[in-house]
Amino acid sequence: MISMRCLGRSVPRQILRLNPKLPQRTLSTIRRSSLLQQSWKGAPIARHAAFSTSQLAREKEGQVDQELSAKVESELRIENETRDSESLPANIQEFLDNSAFELEDIPGQEEVALTRTFGDESIRITFSIADLNNVDQEEADQFDSDPALSDEEAADAAETNVQSGGANTKGSINQGRTKGGNFAVAPEDSIAPSDRAEGSYEDPTGGEGGPQEPSFPARLTINIQKASKGVLQLEAVAQDGEVMIDNIYYFQKPELADAKTAELDWSRRNLYTGPPFGNLDEDLQVLLERYLDERGVNTSLALWIPEYVDWKEQKEYLNWLSNVKSFIDA
Predict the structure, then answer these.
(1) How far apart are CA 112 and CA 238, in angstroms?
(2) Is 169 exposed, middle or buried (0-12, 13-18, 19+ CB in 10 A)?
(3) Between 20 and 30 A from 208 (CA), which of 35, 44, 150, 247?
(4) What is the pTM of this model?
(5) How many angstroms separate the CA atoms of 229 and 250, rounded?
(6) Quick check: 238 and 301 in contact, CB under 8 A?
(7) How far is CA 66 from CA 63, 188, 329, in A?
């Protein structure tokens, strides 16, 4: 048997000697190849799957998932209980039924638009529910920056009655308008109900619903466009039944009024679009306010917008809670 093995090994060498044209492998090449083959043959072969599909492996790794899901579900339940209805409240729907404006509201988006035509003009008013959250954050930041404000709030309320400005201000005379659109009323300026003229009494509780709180300021962007004539754009604030204009611009190119690209935004910045509204002549300011009022930008709209923002924000918050819970439970 050994001789046969020797014979098998010697046969290739004899062939190489008989045929010198065949290339001969060097010893180093033979050894190198054998070493590589041995290392490759010695590599272990995996006999198991690279991942596990067992039920234990598919379990959630988080330890607070169930607790967080229960908390979100509790928040959802509370919000649904305090919510009157999924449909629009009667006062909000009544405005839409009797107004020339058409509502554009895309679920899941913050911005809302009202559109209408007035003669040869196309009017578009946009506002955002983000203003409601911004007001809450600004108030929180104010108290965080000065903790003494929260301690002195009760004392200040007793000494100074701060009320919302405008024709709805109750029980005050000698009013001075502040920067924020409010009236600071000193105690000596308040008139007792018994001292008022007959027929001028107003319920200090604001009726059955209690005292009326001032609404939050909703920022409006009003675009009035005429074909081939450009856009007149006004920035305003709707609060407590008033529309207060901050700025007025004119753009010859309509696309600059709502610049959606960096190039358009840069072109808009280099334009002279007009002075601040407060720097205009008072008579001109009054006429511009009447100009808006004639186009439906009036007290009714200023009262409706904060109500709609509050309703939509709650609706979007409920949808957000549902989406978060679905993600956690998935």
Answers:
(1) 14
(2) middle
(3) 150
(4) 0.61
(5) 10
(6) yes
(7) 8, 58, 8
Dist CA 124 CA 102 (whole Å): 10
pLDDT of 43 over the 50 cut: yes
Residue with tokens 């109900």: 193
Cα–Cα distance between 211 and 214 in angstroms, integer? 10
Alpha carbon separation from 220 to 113, 237, 285, 290, 305 (Å, rounded): 10, 6, 17, 17, 9
Question: Which residues lie across from 245 on neighbouring strands?
Answer: 236
Q: What are phi and psi of 188, to 5 degrees?
A: -70, -15
pLDDT digits (tens, 9 = 90+) for 94-108: 999 999 999 999 999
Instruction: Identify the residue with better confidence: 259 or 128.
Output: 128
Q: What is the pLDDT of residues 195-241, one digit of tens each?
A: 444 433 344 334 444 455 667 899 999 999 999 899 999 999 999 99
Reply yes or no on whether the pLDDT at 30 is more than 70.
no
Spell out where the chain has E strands. 102-105, 111-118, 121-128, 161-164, 176-177, 182-185, 218-226, 230-239, 242-251
Can you tell me whether residue 95 is helix, strand or coil?
A: helix
Instruction: Tell me which DSSP letter residue 43 carries.
Output: S
Query: Is the distance from CB of 218 to CB of 309 less than 8 angstroms?
Result: yes
